[in-house]
Structures are given as structure tokens and as C-alpha cells.
Write a structure and sequence with these properties.
395 residues; four-stranded mixed β-sheet; Rossmann fold; binds magnesium ion; globular; 15% strand; Rna Polymerase Sigma Factor, Chain: A; single chain; alpha/beta; binds nicotinamide-adenine-dinucleotide
């Protein structure tokens, strides 16, 4: 007997993660069906994906863009229904016909639809780490109360998930786990002199040595803020305290992270740096799926290196640990200031080292409060964005 395919909503379908998700799905048409594909405003890209994958819904955030998409789809004889706006992103995340939601919007914009999927009890494949950074406790609560299943897509967290059996206790130590070793490539400026860092250009920062990713996460990887966000993400996903998370620079990006047990065992998950591995793992879980990823050639790699991260050169990593320790709305402030800073750096309005300066200033100016409701989190995010914009205008 044939099982019916899983209905999948892809939030951020035109992005790097969205496209790789569709690539894996297309290898298993009997297992997966695109139910809804969403994007910000790129009509041409979403149109092409709709014609290829024939989803029931296409959603664009932008209303004008949605109108153009609708005309083009109907001219092409497509039956895909076009919607727009944030409430439509929530609608296709919580729709009763949806089994699985790939949350792959970049930044704070992904928060509300991810929460909607959690409340509706979906299987959530979470790439959008900013959701956990901003509202970790609220999001995890929504997952629990909604009866949702959360599977991490970030390669490090997916690796940890793979080498961490279902834990008996929410306390890591009681589950036999000593700590999490979160690996980092170190980014394109791992070996760049501290003095030269203030002069690096967006073009240089956009060249990641090992991974092909969207522009925002690529800059985050260059500042090590990506690893900082991932430390906060690991805290919420695995209930790890800041002291139980160690960042290990591993330039080859083959070990995607490790878990150290109290008996001295260290389990690592390895593979080529290709996001289709974690995507396929989460899509198929608990089964394994063909992903199209090349076989790992250990002879070609030859050796693994490990280094301590340099938080003097990369203050963003230190700031993320500080925000995690401060708790409450501090991580939301860190995230919002970082989003504004990265956008300003990409527009060449500020220098590379100003990114950390802006975030530090936002964190010290903000009034940090308990992150008890989504409104409080969104308010903290908005105020931090305003402060960060002011910072750019003053400098
Ligand atoms: P991307 O920039 O390539 O794609 C972003 C997607 O989100 C696009 O489809 C875009 O249309 C959509 N989008 C952007 N702004 C939006 C808005 N305001 N409202 C609605 N939709 C919007 O980004 P990416 O590299 O695919 O990353 C997506 C997420 O996955 C990020 O949170 C990132 O940190 C995380 N992630 C990515 C990778 C990777 O390898 N690319 C790895 C781990 C985690
Ligand atoms: Mg990662």
C-alpha cells in the first residue's frame, strides 16, 4: 500500500535552505509534496518554483508582488492560489492539511509563522535560528503546548540531535552528558590580523570558505555572530547552560558538532558541508533518505584541525554569551541590533568591526526585562532596531 505523501510548507522557499529542501524533496516525490511555498518579494523566483512544484498556495509578503505573481500563474494555467502578508504566512504554517513546516525565512521575520506552526502542532524543521534566539522560552513552550515536533536544521544542532539519544531528563548531566562541543569554521577571516579586520569589505566577507548560504548568515559567519546565535539556539534546544557549551573552531567543517558524555566518550557527526544532509535527516526522521550529498572522502581531507575561538578579534561571540547569561529580552536585543548592523555593513554604511560595537551599544542601552510574552519580545526587538539605526546615523 502506498503512503500518502507528506504535505510540506516551505517558509522562505526561494532562499538557500528553501531550495535545498526542494532539491531533497524532488528526489522523493512519493514521500513529499509541496503544499505552500513562500518568499518575501521575488516574483520571478517564486513563479519558477510554483511552475515546477505545483503547490496549493504561494505566499509573498509583499502585496504588489503577489498581484503580479497571481497574474503570471493564471496566465500559465496554474491552479496555485496566491496569498500575501504575514497572516497568510501564518495561515499556510498552521493549515490543517500541512504535516511539516520548513521554517527557513531569514531573521526576525520568521518568528510569527514559526510560532503559528508550533501552536498548530506541526512537525517543524527549524532553520530560522533567530526565532529561538529572540523568543526561546516562548517558542519551546508553544512547541510543547501545541504538541509540535521540533527538528533542528542548523548543521551543528542537527549533528548534536543525531548523536544525542532521547534524553531521560531535561537536565543534561542527569542524562550522562557533560557538554556540547559546537564546531565553527572560523569564517573567511579566521587568520586575518585584528588590525586588518576593520577594513574588510562586504565582498570579502561574503566569501565563505566552506558553505554557500544567504547573505545575512554569511556575514554572521564572518563575525562569528552566527556561532553566538547558535550557542543561544543550543541552549534552548538541548537545555544546555552557557558553561556546558564550548565553541571549537574546526576549519574543515567536516565534524558538524560533538557531544561529550560523563564517561569520557565524545560522539561526533561528520559529513561534507552540504545542508542537504541535515535537511534529509529531518525530512525523513526517523528514517534515512538519499540526499544527493557526495560521499565523504577522508583521504582527500587528510587531517582535522581544532582551535579556540578568538573573542578579542570576534567580539560578537562574547556578546552572544553575555546576552544568553543576561537572559530575558537581551538575546532579542542582540539579534535585532545584529540584523540592522549586518544590513548597514552590506550597504557599506558601517565598517566590519562596527557590527560588534553597535550590538554592544544596543545591549548596554536597552532595558532588559523578562521575555514573558511575544509582545514584550517584539517590543524589545523594535526598540533595539531604532537604537541601532540611530547609531548608524551618528557614526
Ligand atoms: P536566504 O537569504 O537565502 O533566504 C531567505 C528566504 O526568506 C528567502 O526565501 C526570502 O524570500 C525569505 N524572506 C526574507 N525576508 C523575508 C520577510 N521579511 N518575510 C518573509 N520572507 C522573507 O537565507 P538562508 O541562507 O536560506 O537562511 C535562512 C535561515 O536558515 C536563516 O535563519 C539562517 O540563519 C538559517 N540557516 C541557513 C543555513 C544555510 O546554509 N544557508 C544554515 C543554517 C541555518
Ligand atoms: Mg550552523
Amino acid at each position: 500500500m502506498m503512503n500518502t505523501p507528506q504535505n510540506i510548507t516551505i517558509l522562505g522557499a526561494t532562499g538557500t535552505i528553501g531550495r535545498q529542501t526542494l532539491d531533497v524533496m524532488a528526489r522523493h516525490p512519493e514521500k513529499f509534496r509541496a503544499f505552500a511555498l513562500t518568499a518575501n518579494s521575488s516574483v520571478g523566483e517564486l513563479l519558477a518554483l510554483c511552475l515546477q512544484f505545483d503547490p496549493q498556495y504561494a505566499v509573498l509578503l509583499d502585496a504588489d508582488a503577489a498581484q503580479i505573481l497571481e497574474q503570471k500563474l493564471s496566465a500559465a494555467g496554474s491552479a496555485t492560489q496566491v496569498l500575501h502578508g504575514i497572516s497568510s504566512l501564518e495561515f499556510v504554517s498552521a493549515h490543517p492539511a500541512v504535516d511539516t513546516v520548513m521554517a527557513a525565512i531569514v531573521g526576525a521575520a520568521g518568528l510569527k509563522p514559526a510560532i503559528a506552526a508550533a501552536q498548530a502542532g506541526k512537525r517543524i524543521l527549524l532553520a530560522n535560528k533567530e526565532t529561538l534566539v529572540m523568543s526561546g522560552s516562548l517558542f519551546m513552550l508553544a512547541v510543547e503546548q501545541g504538541g509540535a515536533t521540533l527538528l533542528p536544521i542548523d548543521s551543528e544542532h542537527n549533528a548534536i540531535f543525531q548523536v544525542m539519544p532521547p534524553v531521560k531528563s531535561r537536565n543534561l548531566h542527569e542524562s550522562g552528558i557533560k557538554r556540547i562541543l559546537l564546531t565553527a569554521s572560523g569564517g573567511p577571516f579566521r587568520d586575518t590580523d585584528a588590525d586588518a579586520l576593520s577594513l574588510v569589505t562586504p565582498q570579502q566577507a561574503l566569501k565563505h570558505p566552506n558553505w554557500v548560504m544567504g547573505p545575512k548568515i554569511t556575514i554572521d559567519s564572518a563575525t562569528l555572530m552566527n556561532k553566538g546565535l547558535e550557542v543561544i539556539e543550543a541552549h534552548w534546544l538541548f537545555n544546555a547552560t552557557p558553561d556546558q557549551i564550548e565553541v571549537v573552531v574546526h576549519p574543515q567543517s567536516v565534524i558538524h558538532s560533538m557531544v561529550e558524555y560523563i564517561d569520557g566518550s565524545v560522539l561526533a557527526q561528520m559529513g561534507n558541508p552540504d545542508m542537504r544532509t541535515p535537511i534529509a535527516y529531518a525530512l525523513g526522521y526517523p528514517d534515512r533518505l538519499e540526499s544527493g550529498v557526495n560521499t565523504l572522502d577522508l583521504f582527500k581531507i587528510g587531517h582535522f584541525d581544532f582551535q579556540k575561538p578568538d573573542t578579542g578579534k570576534f567580539p560578537c561571540l562574547r556578546l552572544a554569551f553575555e546576552a544568553l547569561r543576561a537572559g530575558g529580552t537581551a538575546p532579542a536585543v542582540l539579534n535585532a541590533a545584529n540584523e540592522v548592523a549586518v544590513a548597514a555593513f552590506l550597504k557599506q554604511e558601517i565598517g566590519f568591526m562596527d557590527i560588534a560595537r553597535m550590538i554592544e551599544s544596543a545591549l548596554s542601552d536597552a532595558r532588559i526585562v523578562q521575555a514573558d510574552t511575544l509582545d514584550i519580545v517584539i517590543d524589545a526587538d523594535m526598540h533595539a532596531r531604532e537604537a541601532a539605526v540611530q547609531w548608524v546615523m551618528k557614526h
